[in-house]
Design goal:
Elements: E1 4-9, H1 15-25, H2 29-34, E2 35-40, H3 51-54, E3 64-70, H4 76-85, E4 97-102, H5 104-108, E5 120-121, H6 126-138, E6 147-149, E7 160-162, E8 187-188, E9 190-191, H7 201-205, E10 210-211, H8 214-225, E11 231-235, H9 252-263, E12 270-272, H10 287-293, E13 301-307, H11 311-316, H12 323-335, E14 339-346, H13 353-367, E15 374-380, H14 399-410, E16 414-416, H15 418-421
Parallel strand pairs: 1-2, 1-3, 3-4, 4-5, 8-11, 11-12, 13-14, 14-15, 15-16
Antiparallel strand pairs: 6-7, 9-10
Helix pairs in contact: 1-6, 8-9, 9-10, 13-14
């Protein structure tokens, strides 16, 4: 009989996290025996809207209940609202509630959560830390976990973070999906980033790129195919950098081995590589790479992180490439009949009129047909904890950018989140 119930919200944008995390936990038979894991079809911070759902769960048979949150920065307002207005919601179902929170925002800035009703914070590389905490709670841990109390107590609930650096797991060693609950997401092939873009958490939190082995990736894809998983996506900060020692210069042999072996699995009907939810750095787009990967791919679109048409701004944010490399990548992708999506971020700290003009010039070239099969994926700068830009103000959209993006959108050449990120429209994550 399981001792405890673990509730977590399996909904966008946290599905990928829970697919990977549950795959890791399911490899531990002790945890699967002692805990009952329950994926919810909604976020935990929306639980008060689903009381009838919880009334169907037999809470009394468990010694305690764990609320496990994975949070992005955009979700903090609704999490805060739930904690303030409904902090005792689960106590009506069970007297012993333990709240655990993880995610990139939490790992970068745990002090932001000192005012909330939280028991434990899990740092990034959370698979190992979360599993060990679960062992500690049921007394089956073989290791002593060093902890330190950080400043601030929330309603008598101490918040702990490990005193030591989180243990780095071997990427790809564990199944990246939950076979038990059929929670599938993209297959993580690489973790970390060698660049330290001032706006991005990835390289500033883990700047060493680690790759899963081809052998392990193929093993998990084959296992997934046996339970009716017939299409595969990948998770990587730079798909074309898979296997690369520096994370940028492509390893042609690694790319070929990966894609050819997955392509040979009979049940796999689609391979999506270099597209959402991953992207490609422009300098990794070469003729040799495209010649290698194109025969295996089902996607006809490649997503490139361009961010700006201004070389000055690209240098300022430490992007590590030029806009000339972006344009070269566009032409190469055109040659191989790929459509191109370019990520652009507006309102960067320090953005000036000349930077805006460079963006406008490039967008006009798209309107004029100079660059074919190009679509802009729009974003507005948002300061993220754990980055050099964490204390900068939210980006402001220049009227001229709004105007030209409107023109591009009307002809299917632009789409994205720039308005919601700038606070001009409400989103599913806005406070009610």
């Amino acid at each position: 009989m399981p001792k405890a119930l673990v509730l977590f919200g399996y909904d966008k944008p946290n599905r990928y996290t829970w697919s990977i995390l549950m795959g890791y936990l399911e490899s531990d038979p002790v945890l699967m025996d002692q805990y009952s894991f329950h994926p919810l079809p909604f976020h935990l911070y929306k639980s008060h809207l689903h009381q009838a759902y919880f009334e169907k769960i037999d809470f009394k048979k468990y010694d305690y209940v764990i609320l496990a949150y994975s949070l992005l920065s955009v979700q903090i307002p609704q999490f805060e609202e739930f904690n303030i207005n409904h902090n005792n919601f689960f106590n009506k179902f069970h007297p012993k509630i333990i709240t655990i929170v993880g995610g990139s925002h939490v790992a970068a800035s745990p002090e932001d959560f000192a005012r909330f009703k939280i028991d434990f914070i899990i740092p990034d590389e959370g698979e190992y830390a979360f599993s060990q905490l679960l062992h500690v709670l049921i007394g089956t841990s073989k290791e002593k976990i060093e902890t330190q109390l950080i400043s601030g107590l929330s309603r008598g609930f101490p918040i702990y973070i490990p005193a030591n650096q989180p243990k780095l797991i071997e990427v790809g060693k564990y199944p990246p999906f939950s076979a038990k609950f059929r929670l599938f997401g993209p297959i993580e092939i690489s973790r970390g980033c060698p660049f330290r873009c001032k706006f991005c958490q990835t390289g500033n939190r883990a700047n060493k790129m680690r790759h899963a082995s081809v052998e392990n990736i193929v093993k998990w894809v084959r296992m997934a195919s046996e339970i009716k998983f017939d299409k595969v996506w990948f998770l990587s900060p730079n798909s074309f950098g898979y296997g690369s020692r520096n994370g940028v210069t492509p390893d042609i042999n690694a790319l070929f081995d990966l894609l050819s072996q997955i392509h040979a699995i009979p049940a796999i009907k689609g391979i999506y590589f270099g597209t959402f939810p991953s992207e490609v750095r422009p300098e990794s787009v070469t003729y040799e790479v495209l010649e290698t990967v194109a025969p295996f791919l089902s996607n006809k679109k490649i997503l490139i992180g361009a961010q700006s048409a201004s070389n000055r701004l690209l240098r300022s944010v430490q992007r590590g490439h030029t806009f000339e490399q972006v344009k070269k990548a566009i032409l190469l992708l055109n040659e191989f009949k790929f459509n191109i999506e370019l990520d652009f971020i507006f309102g960067f700290p320090g953005e000036n009129k000349e930077d805006i003009k460079e963006n406008l010039n490039f967008f006009n070239e798209i309107l004029e047909g100079k660059y074919k099969n190009v679509k802009i994926h729009t974003h507005t700068f948002m300061p993220l904890p754990g980055t050099p830009f964490s204390n900068e103000p939210k980006g402001i959209l220049d009227p001229s950018i709004l105007k030209i993006i409107g023109k591009l959108s009307k002809i299917g050449k632009a789409y994205g989140e720039h308005l919601s990120q700038a606070g001009k429209v409400k989103t599913r994550y806005s406070k009610k």
